Structures are given as C-alpha cells and as structure tokens.
Amino acid sequence: MKSLDELDKLREKLQQQMKVRDKDHEVTVKVSMGTCGIAAGARETVKALLEELKEQGLGGVALTQTSCAGLCQHEPLVEIVKGMEKTTYVNVDREKAKEIVRKHLVEGKVIKDWTTPDH
Predict the structure, then answer these.
(1) I want to staple 33 with a disulfide (CB 3.0 to 4.6 A). Which of 65, 72, 85, 99 is the partner?
(2) In what order do the strands lie in the sheet with 85-89?
(3) Segment 18-67, tens digit of pLDDT
C-alpha cells in the first residue's frame, strides 16, 4: 500500500465481495465453537457437515462458527438459519450432523427430537 487512496479502494473491493458472498447463501449453518463446544466434539461435527454438504452437492449454504451460546450441557450445537427461520439442534455428533444435512437441508424436514424446545 502506497497511499490512503489505495487502501480505500481495497476496502471498497472487499466490502463488495462480502456483499456478493452474503447473497450467495440461502441458508447459514452455524456451529458453536466455544471451548465447551470444541470439548464436546464440535470439530468432528463441522467435518461431518462439510463432508455431507459436499456429498449432497448443496450450494447456497454457508457453514460458519460462533462462540459459546450458553447451552454448554447441549454442545455441540448446530443452528440452521434460513431467512427469519432458525432451528437449533443439540448434542450433534457426526451421525446427527449428516442426518441434519439430509433431512433438514435436502428434504426441508426439521428433526424435532434433536432441537431445543423453542427450536
């Protein structure tokens, strides 16, 4: 960087890329990756989600991480956000993660037995 003008141009370019990226995703899948989530196996949950998203060929899905959600006894947590609709799955291990992708994301069916009461 040689000038503030170059820095401003770079910032503007990156902001535009972020806006485009946000619009590319119809659904966001968030995994709680605080220390409690990681200790409960959230890394394996993320790996399983990535594998199954790839296996199912799903586009338009952003997989992100969040910090502790305050539900440590229910970790790993996976939250599916589509528009204003939010579903939080609890105690998500490798197999549950794959099933969530197949049922919830592919078929559009919430697996009620694995959600928080207000899902």
Answers:
(1) 65
(2) 61-66, 27-32, 78-82, 85-89
(3) 444 455 678 999 999 888 888 999 999 999 999 999 898 887 888 888 88
